[in-house]
Specification:
Blueprint: H1 4-24, H2 39-60, H3 68-86, H4 96-116, H5 121-125
Helix pairs in contact: 1-2, 2-3, 2-4, 3-4
């Protein structure tokens, strides 16, 4: 059985993923209007946080850090599926730019959380 800290970390991942799924399932008219490409900030941020939580959970579960590229690849696939899922939601669509920002946010979240966990912040992140 996984230690309690690992279970809590995976619970945080599942909670954030569920939150993301709810947000991406909202119909277009239910969302506030966003000028230009400001929605890209939201896409970047959502996957940045998810990747950070995944990095933390993987560390708590003693995954090998060199295998985190597989986590990024899974997030890239998840982002593509998420974009396709949005095509089924009234008033929403799939956009390449959104997927690029999702993927970039995931890469940044993985990288920065990995670096942070090697510093004094690691005690706070645990």
């Amino acid at each position: 059985m996984a230690p309690a800290s690992a279970r809590r970390a995976w619970l945080a991942v599942a909670t954030w993923a569920a939150f993301q799924l709810v947000l991406t399932s909202l119909p277009g008219p239910a969302l506030p209007p966003v000028p230009g490409h400001w929605d890209w900030v939201a896409h970047f941020g959502m996957y940045f946080v998810l990747a950070g939580l995944l990095t933390r959970a993987a560390a708590r579960s003693r995954w090998q850090p060199k295998k985190l590229w597989l986590v990024w690849l899974a997030l890239v696939v998840m982002a593509a599926l998420d974009e396709q899922h949005q095509r089924l939601i009234p008033g929403r669509d799939a956009e390449l730019g959104d997927w690029i920002m999702d993927s970039t946010g995931a890469a940044a979240g993985l990288a920065l959380t990995t670096l942070a966990m090697r510093t004094r912040l690691a005690t706070w992140l645990q």
